[in-house]
Amino acid sequence: MTRLELRVHVDAPATRTWAALTDWDRQGEWMLGTRVRVTAGDGAGVGSELSAFTGLGPLGFTDTMRVTAWEPPLRCAVDHTGRLVRGTGEFLVRPLGARSELVWAEDVALPLTLAFAPGVKLSLIRFARFAREYPRG
Fold first, then answer.
1. How far apart, in whole angstroms, are the C-alpha atoms of residue 71 and residue 123?
2. CA neighbor of 51 nearest in space, from 84, 4, 3
3. Could you give the CA distance from residue 88 to residue 21 in angstroms, rounded to a whole number?
4. DSSP labels, 59-122
5. What burial letters (b/e) apply to 106-137, b meaning 16+ CB within 10 Å?
6. Cβ neighbours around 35 below 10 Å, total
7. Residue 48 in 3-state DSSP?
8. What is the set of domains in the chain, with CATH numbers?
9. What SUPFAM superfamilies would the database entry show (predicted)?
């Protein structure tokens, strides 16, 4: 397992950051090359399942996840249940008054994990802009 933990400050309060983060259908607007959909449950609670395809055209991989913790507007944890990506992930939103901080943490067994980190960092920078304008974005 490899630990990946990245942070970004967001010019939006925690409640808006949480809403933007957990709008799974729109995650592709800020997450590089990724489309997310809810495959079981409503996407807003423990037991919900998500499927994230990352790639270009038909070339890529699918990361399936099951939500294991749901504590709005502060924490969402998942188990990665796919064949390629295994481990756990967590989104933490830290309130900072009118601003917030998003912490993206993963403990995963993933080929080329170090190559994954720059893409996630760029995606988090894009997320900060997306959340600032959310829901209009």
1. 23
2. 84
3. 17
4. EEEEEEEEEEEEETTTEEEEEEESSS-EEEEEEEEEEETTEEEEEEEEEEE-TTHHHHHHHHHH
5. bebebeebeebeeebeebbeebbebbbebeee
6. 16
7. coil
8. 2-133 (3.30.530.20)
9. Bet v1-like
In this prediction, residue 77 carries a pLDDT of 98
**pLDDT of res. 99:** 98
User: What is the pLDDT confidence band of residue 84, given thresholds at 50, 70 and 90?
Assistant: confident
Report pLDDT for 79: 98
Q: Which residue has the higher pLDDT, 99 or 83?
A: 99
Count of other CB atoms within 10 angstroms of residue 29: 15
Q: Could you tell me if 32 and 122 are in contact, meaning their C-beta atoms sit under 8 angstroms apart?
A: yes
Tokens of 25: 């259908």
Indicate whether 109 pLDDT > 90.
no
**Which one, of 100, 38, 48, lies nearest residue 70 by Cα?**
48
pLDDT score for 88: 96
What pLDDT band is residue 1 in, cutting at 50, 70 and 90?
A: confident
